[in-house]
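Model: Ready when you are.
Researcher: Fold this.
Model:
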Amino acid sequence: MSEPDFSPLTGFRVAVTSARRADELATLLRRRGATVTSAAAIEMVPLPDDDELQQNTASLIDSPPDIVIATTGIGFRGWMSAADGWGVATALTDALSKARVVSRGPKATGALRAGGLPEEWSPDSESSREVLHYLLEGGIAGARIAVQLHGATDDWDPFPEFLDELRAAGAEVVPIRVYRWHPAPRNGDFDQLVAGIAEEKFDAVSFTSAPAVASVLMRAGEMGLGAEVLSALRGGVHAMCVGPVTARPLVRLGVPTSAPERMRLGALARHITDELPLLQSRTVRVAGHLLEIRGNCVLVDGAVRTMSPAAMATIRALALRPGTVVSRADLLRALPGSSTDTHAVETAVLRLRTALGDKKMVATVVKRGYRLPVDEAFAS
């Protein structure tokens, strides 16, 4: 058998919102055939310029904590690097060494050990909830707890309930927000990406941090597209997240999400490769041909057929009810733009038949409309 002339993600459109390693993720997806649009949703506040981080670091040196919680490896290392730049790394390590040290996962554990701060305990699940239960079981009333956080914005905190529950149990919490973020500048590529989500120009959006999710939602609201973006993410634009913490802001809003088992960039790329064709393609057998409809192309018997936007809109509308007649009026409503002339439908059907390579794949039903003459239809 000959090899297919398409890759797993051929025809699918993926938006990448990452600030860090965006090029790496985009390259992995493009190698698998995806059309990728990348625009960072957030910008990092340089650590040496972060006054809040410096002030809280000085506070812990002056009044050492009873408990230290490290949530991420990169965040903890970044904190130590910033302290070194301020000339207080040794003093900070000395202050933290007097505390009980709890790690949220293996990467945080490795960073702690590298800094000379072996952990007292770490959950196997990398779950903040398990960390909380562990501390509450031992009692933390009156304890001063330093919590290293990663990925906060000026308007959004990734662990609000976690910190609130520590405080509710009687602890004094010192949040160490490492790598704080600002939303991306207005009127640039990011705004175009958000508008593209609202218009369902993508089949999936990848998120590698919860702040990026928050930034997309906030910017959509600022642009007057909040309802449209949520509708798209609840419908035909699939949210692909690197892990459950990243997905949490979307889950709270009733947006379906999916994530790989391992919270790694390569795992996310493989997850998108495996899941998107299952979620966002439709396969039917039409006039003796196997037809697979993807984001911006159609595969006919395994061969890629590039479509115009009007042709894609037409084939999608016909494939929603395979074998059933779709009226010209319904097809006209499905076409991009706001034309009221049914001649636009005839033109779109003509172009669709040409692109498919066999005019029998779209049948005309006189005075009624058009349909796909299905041999056997099945969802995929």
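Researcher: Now this one.
Model:
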Amino acid sequence: MPQPRFDRRLFLRATAATGAAVTVGGLSAPPASAAPGGFPDYTYVRTLLTPSQLKYNPTGEIIFPCVRGVYDKLSAPLGRYYLYYGPHDAPGGICLAYGNSLEGPFTEYPNNPIVANNWQPHYSVSHVASPHVMWHASAKELWLYFHGENTTTRLARSKDGINFTYDKVVLSTSMLPSGTTETSYARVFPHELPSHGAHYVMVFMLNNTTNHRDIHWGWSADGRTWTYDQQPLIRHSDVGAVNVGGPHLLYRDNSTYVVYNKDKESGGDLMITEVGNDFSKRNHLGVLYNSRSSAPENGRAAAPSFGTDGGVPYMIYEAGERLSGSIAMARG
């Protein structure tokens, strides 16, 4: 019997966006069913991190996971994969766990937080949160984007993924239209945008005085200095939500997609919109992942991070009500 075809180009493209690894020769068959756009139909497998089981647990909540394959990037990593996360409420803190499989288990780094809410002489804020780490290939560094306060996103850089050097503020409410009150939960991806002279794009959540959150975006030649579109990329009203947030880019069949979460009042699911490689499309495709009413999701999945391991697609995400959930893993 002939073997199912493994779409190597698709997996390599997805890996460039997520920083995780692809092993050709692992699972080769496509998923039995598919989500919108032909993406995998992810199924919850297990919880990876629960606040009550963590040594660093100042607030009883953790959010915004970001997983990165580091075994082929760092000289002596603690594990094949680094999982960044943290509490949101004050004092917050950027935290690290490590493991050898996206299936888990992940071990808490003993000296969390690796970035705190007071970093002199650069800042002193009530909290820092929402870590997104990108492998910057030309610098051979892991670049950490994180917020604190909710008005400001900052950049720090590291050679080992643990010890970071502060760089600069890359996003603030002052860079967006008048009335903007929050610019946070940013994720950055290598992405060629020739019309803008850009090699990186950022997607993030914006709130304003109407208290409805949308997805916005920006572009950069170097990942440090940014230009931001003054209009939303995805409006909450376009997808029947009160708020949308937690955006992440995915790639398939030579196109670009944004995955993001609806607030629990609007269903608590992960949605997907095709924006195209030049971000000119607005093809709202519906639900990518339907959150379950049972634990640990309790009707809410949010802030996904994606990767592949052995050819198997994974999604690591917030599961549960905001500020009382855990970090879970689903497999496609």
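Researcher: Key takeaway?
Model: The first helix runs from residue 8 to 18.
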